[in-house]
Structures are given as structure tokens and as C-alpha cells.
Design a protein that fits this description.
101 residues, 75% helix, elongated
Length: 101
């Protein structure tokens, strides 16, 4: 025989279970999607940084890259920044700090 108290308890436990399962599912999706999304975020930040840096140092940077033997004809600073941002997304620090209690 079920009483209103036990059915309410079952409802609360069911809601708590689905809320916890939803958080785990969201975390799983984010961890799975991170390797694909972080390079795209790196492109956006790199393009913006390249645009801002290009406003002040465009001739200096293009001259330096030309002296290194890199042909920069037809490239804008935001394109260089976007390329470096994309490549930089794959070179993240992977240090893990574990404290022993």
C-alpha cells in the first residue's frame, strides 16, 4: 500500500536521480566535444588578437616573417593570428596536480 508520503519520497528521489544524471550527461558531452571546439575558440581569439596587434605592429611582424623566408604576400594579420590560434589550441599544458590527503 502506498501512502502520499512514500509516493512523494519516490518522486523526490526520481527527480534527484534525473538531475544528477543530467549533470553527468552534460559533463560527458562537454568533455567529448572539447577537443573539437577548443581549436575553433582558438581561431576566434587568434583572429581578434592578430587584428589588434596588426593595428600597431603590422609592418614590423610582416618584415620579420619575410626575413625568416616566409612569404606574407596576400595575408592579413587577422589571418596569421587565426592560424596561430588554431595551432596553439593543440599545444595546451596538460599538468595534473594531485594532492595526497
Amino acid at each position: 500500500m502506498t501512502t502520499p508520503t512514500t509516493s512523494r519520497l519516490a518522486l523526490v528521489l526520481t527527480l534527484a536521480f534525473w538531475r544528477a544524471a543530467g549533470i553527468r550527461a552534460l559533463r560527458t558531452v562537454l568533455v567529448t566535444a572539447a577537443p573539437f571546439l577548443l581549436p575553433l575558440v582558438g581561431v576566434l581569439f587568434g583572429a581578434f588578437a592578430g587584428l589588434v596587434v596588426g593595428l600597431f605592429f603590422e609592418q614590423t611582424i610582416i618584415g620579420f616573417l619575410t626575413r625568416l623566408g616566409i612569404d606574407m604576400t596576400g595575408f592579413a594579420m587577422w589571418q596569421i593570428g587565426a592560424s596561430l590560434g588554431f595551432l596553439g589550441a593543440f599545444f595546451r599544458s596538460s599538468s595534473v596536480n594531485r594532492s595526497k590527503a
